[in-house]
User: Fold this.
Amino acid sequence: MEKNTNYLVGVFGDHDILLKAVKALRKKGVNIYEVFNPYPVHFLEDALGYKRSWMPRAAFGFGALGTTCAILLQSWIMGFEWPMIIGGKGFIAIPDFVPITFELTVLFSAFGMAGSFFVSQDLKPHKVPQIFDRRQSDDKHIMAIDIANNKLSEEEIKALLSEFGAEEVNNKSFTEREKKASFLDYVSDLFTKGVTDSAREIKG
Assistant:
C-alpha cells in the first residue's frame, strides 16, 4: 500500500495557542497526524490523546531480566563453576549478591529502554527524516494533518487552522525522491544545501 504524502501544515508561534488549537481541532473531528515542537510542551500529549507510554513496563521487564540473570550468574559461578569460601560464608550467599544484582538490574533496564525506544520509533541509523517545516527545530510549532485521513475537506481544515491561531497554513507533499530517499542522498544534500531540499522552500 502506497504511503499518503499530502499534508496540511499549520505553523504556530506560541505554544499556548497551539495547545488550544489542538483541543479545538480534535473537538471538530480533525485527525492530527503529528505536532513538532522546538522544545517540550507540557500537556500536549494529553491534548493529542496519546495513551500512556508502555516504556515503564518495558523498564520493569528488562530490570527483572537483569535481576534474574545476575542471581543465576553469581549462583552458578560461586556455587558450581568456581566455589570459594569468603569470610567463612556459604558458597551461595545471597546478601553478597546484592551489589552486582543491583548494577545488572540498572544496566539491563537502561539498555533495554534505549533499544525499545529506538526500535519503536524507527530510529535506525540510515533513517531519512521527513521534515514538514525546517522551523520546527527553530522557533515555530508545526502541526501536520494528513488530508486523506480526515472527513473534512482541505479548505475546511485550512479555515479551522487559521481560525484557531495558525500564522501560516501550507501544503506539504513529499516527492517520490523524498519518499525513497537514500541515506547517501540525504547526507549529500545536508552538506551541499543544508536541510532545505527536504523542507519548506525559503521565501524571498
User: Anything to note?
Assistant: Residues 197-204 have pLDDT under 50 and may be disordered. The CA atoms of residues 144 and 195 lie 18 Å apart. The first strand starts at residue 6 and ends at 12. The helical segments are 15-27, 44-48, 55-81, 98-120, 154-163, 176-179, 183-193.
